[in-house]
Structure formats: structure tokens, C-alpha cells
Amino acid sequence: MLSYQHIFHAGNLADVQKHAALAWVLAYLTVKDKPISYIETHSGRALYDLASDAAQKTGEAAKGIENELIQAGLGSDHPYLRVLNRVRDAFGPRHYPGS
Q1: From CA 25, how far away is CA 30, in angstroms rounded?
Q2: What DSSP state is assigned to residue 34?
Q3: Which residues pair with 97 in a beta bridge?
Q4: Are the CB atoms for 45 and 59 separated by under 8 Å?
Q5: What are the tens digits of pLDDT across the range 56-75?
Q6: Bridge-partner residues for 96, per DSSP?
């Protein structure tokens, strides 16, 4: 059986798209004062170091989260970028939040 390790893919384009869409949907669903439930069935680590040897091995983050076009396209008020900026303020610019 093959072992999937998300550190090799953290911050890639698909990961950025998933988290950006998810952050927007969750922000939208929480506008009203009604409870919601969300269960993440395929979560990984809480925090990834994109400068680690494992993350650098594939270099996928360079085409995703580290691509300035992706960040510029979302807009600074996007919920995903607000979370990303909070994580990077707390842990440093090379860190990336997991699911």
C-alpha cells in the first residue's frame, strides 16, 4: 500500500484552490447567526513548514501558495488569505496552515 504524505503537496495549486473555496463557503455560511456543522474527513497536519526538505523535494508550493498571482487574484480581504496571514504572523512566512 502506498503512503500519502501531504507535506510533499502542501500549498500546491489544488490545495490552494480547495482551501480558498472552503474558507469562502465557511465565511458565507457563518454570516447568519445559525449553527452549522463541518467535518473534515481528510485532514492532515495543522501546520506545514514549506521550507522543509520534504516540502522542497517536489517544489509544488512554488506553483501554488508561493505564486504571487494566486495571492493577488484572491484579494487581501479573502477569508483564506486572512487565515494564512494570521498563521504566518504567528509562525513565520515559510509556514502554511493545514486543514
Answers
A1: 9
A2: -
A3: 47
A4: no
A5: 999 999 888 888 766 677 88
A6: 48
Q: Which helix (H) or strand (E) holds 47?
A: strand 47-49
Helix (H, G, I), strand (E, B) or coil at 63: helix
Compute the C-alpha angle 33/87/84, nearest 5°: 70
Angstrom distance (rounded) from CA 5 to CA 77 = 31
Average pLDDT (3-8) is 88
- DSSP for residue 87: H
pLDDT digits (tens, 9 = 90+) for 32-46: 999 999 998 888 899
Q: Residue 33: CB partners within 8 Å, gap ≥ 6?
A: none
48 burial level (CB within 10 Å; 0-12, 13-18, 19+): buried
